[in-house]
Design goal:
The chain is α/β, with parallel strands linked by helices. Helices cover 36% and strands 15% of the residues. It binds phosphoric acid mono(formamide)ester. This is Aspartate carbamoyltransferase.
Length: 308
């Protein structure tokens, strides 16, 4: 079966199909309550998660399917030293689809190569997080009507933030997109993203350290958490963690219709006072995450869209 390991695994047309299905699910969720009856989803989370795991599980349950899995790998035979390949081959004996989060870059790809069961990358180290990108894109599409002619600001930990890497990759396929990267020197986007995606595709981008100076130009501001768990040195984390804090004062500089997105969890980078601003869309984004995952599950399982 088809897996989703990185954002480019779906063409823009396939993504559009997913978004249209997600729109229909949002409109009439009860029509899909039996779509995955008899199907089983396995969630294999080798790293902590709230949104990705819960939204996948909620998505499958709302489609009438069932869920098995672990969120604490030490409660499974992983703790006895079982390999990813043996784990996934075993899970494939029981489940129809697996969702895997892992601290090692490429782990879900290794898993997918060992089985015919579709495998979804739910975040691999500091590398990619394609279903977060589907969530982000669905949110932008529903709020802005599309992806073209947008100036997207990406702020915070652009080095280790896998959601940013996947989002840049996916958005690079649309017309007249430009990026403004806002980060400290130490947390700039990785070289492979700069060269292989931005420069190679002639995508306009600038890299700045100051948020205020670019805020007025942005259509979307994508805030990110400084990824403590990827730091080699705690002192570096402590030095960088509060570099950017979006507050009500800074929001005054932004366009009236600028969208504030954040994959969440946030630590300190968006003040709670921004939550009531109509431009703050991060909880709506988290909700859309469940609907786009419902569409994804149906697509990967090849479920016919038969309305109840
Ligand atoms: N956005 C996201 O991946 O959140 P979780 O780590 O809680 O799954």
């Amino acid at each position: 079966g088809k897996s989703l390991l990185e954002p480019m695994d779906f063409t823009t047309e396939e993504m559009e199909e997913l978004f249209l299905l997600a729109d229909r699910i949002i409109e009439e969720p009860e029509q899909y309550a039996k779509s995955c009856e008899g199907k089983l989803l396995a969630t294999l989370f080798y790293e902590p998660s709230t949104r990705t795991r819960f939204s996948f599980e909620a998505a499958m349950l709302r489609l009438g399917g069932k869920v098995i899995g672990f969120s604490e790998p030490n409660s499974s035979s992983v703790s006895k030293g079982e390999s990813i390949s043996d784990t996934i081959r075993t899970v494939a004996c029981y489940a129809d689809l697996a969702v895997m989060r892992h601290p090692k870059e490429g782990a879900p790809k290794v898993a997918a190569a060992c089985t015919d069961m579709p495998v979804v990358n739910a975040g691999d180290g500091g590398h990619q997080h394609p279903t977060q990108t589907l969530t982000d894109l669905l949110t932008i599409r529903r709020e802005k009507g599309g992806f073209e002619n947008l100036t997207i600001g990406l702020c915070g930990d652009l080095k280790f933030g896998r959601t940013v890497h996947s989002l840049i990759k996916a958005l690079s396929r649309y017309r007249n997109i430009s990026f403004v990267m806002i980060s400290p020197e130490e947390l700039r986007i990785p070289e492979y993203v700069r060269r292989e995606i931005l420069i190679k595709n002639n995508i306009p981008f600038q890299e700045v350290k100051n948020m205020q100076e670019v805020l007025p130009s942005l259509d979307v501001l994508y805030m990110t958490r400084v990824q403590r768990e990827r730091f080699f040195n705690e002192d570096d984390y402590l030095r960088l963690k509060n570099r950017y804090i979006l507050d009500a004062q800074k929001m005054k500089l932004a366009k009236e219709n600028m969208m504030v997105l954040h994959p969440l969890p946030r630590v300190n980078e968006i003040s709670a006072e921004v939550d009531n601003d109509p431009r703050a869309l991060y909880f709506k984004q988290a909700k859309y995450g469940m609907f786009v995952r419902m569409a994804l599950i149906m697509s990967l399982l090849g479920v016919e869209e038969r309305r109840n």
